[in-house]
């Protein structure tokens, strides 16, 4: 999974971010979507060893086939922060980069 925003964890102000992405989503390449049987708009479960986030799929050729993209500044069940390590540097208080290994599958039995 890769971070949202500019790749450094910075997003535009919240009102701008929600105009860009009004709700959580999981972006994936058509090859990965085909492998898991997903179509545009299907609810996906993105799972790491730290948590689970459910969000609709956006199928795009603009992403690598081995990557799932989720925006970070969005709240709720689909939030990407539930998947990543909350560790911060003890001196600078900077968070670790928001990249982690995940699995992705069709979400079954979730709203």
From TrEMBL:
Keywords: Iron, Iron-sulfur, Metal-binding. GO terms for molecular function: iron-sulfur cluster binding; metal ion binding; molybdopterin cofactor binding; NADH dehydrogenase activity. Residues 1-20, 71-90 are annotated as: Disordered. One of its GO terms (biological process) is respiratory electron transport chain. The keyword Iron-sulfur applies. InterPro entries: Asp_de-COase-like_dom_sf (IPR009010), MoPterin_dinucl-bd_dom (IPR006657), Prok_molybdopt-oxidoreductase (IPR050123). It comes from the Bacteria. Pfam families: Molydop_binding. Residues 18-101 form the Molybdopterin dinucleotide-binding domain. GO terms for cellular component: membrane. This is Anaerobic selenocysteine-containing dehydrogenase. It comes from Streptomyces zagrosensis. The lineage of its organism: Bacteria, Bacillati, Actinomycetota, Actinomycetes, Kitasatosporales.
